[in-house]
Amino acid sequence: MITLATNAAVRVEGDNVDYALKLLKKKVEREGLIREIKRHTYYEKPTEVRRKKLLKARRKQQKLQRKLQEKYKYY
User: Fold this and answer.
1) What phi-psi label fits residue 32: left (phi over 0), alpha (psi between -120 and 50 degrees) or beta?
2) pLDDT band at residue 73 using 50, 70 and 90 as cut-offs
3) Is a pLDDT exceeding 50 seen at residue 1?
4) Confidence category of residue 61, pLDDT binned at 50, 70, 90
5) Could you give phi then psi for residue 20, rounded to 5 degrees?
6) Per residue, what are the HEC states of the chain?
7) 14: left (phi > 0), else alpha (psi -120 to 50), else beta?
8) Taking Cα atoms as reference points, which of 1, 3, 7 lies closest to residue 31?
């Protein structure tokens, strides 16, 4: 069982429920709650977690390299 501490509360003023729902969705997204819940829906082996972490770092590094190449392409 996973417990996630959340402070995502939105006050509804008047009949503006749609706007309050929109604000709540933004807060939940910013805190990363949905991502956490999806990540913990099934067990991942520690090796899979490490592999995903390494692949994410590699993709981030490649993206940075592409940006730098584009920036200094004409120098």
Assistant:
1) left
2) confident
3) no
4) very high
5) -65, -40
6) CCCCCCCCCCCCCCCCHHHHHHHHHHHHHHHCHHHHHHHCCCCCCHHHHHHHHHHHHHHHHHHHHHHHHHHCCCC
7) left
8) 7
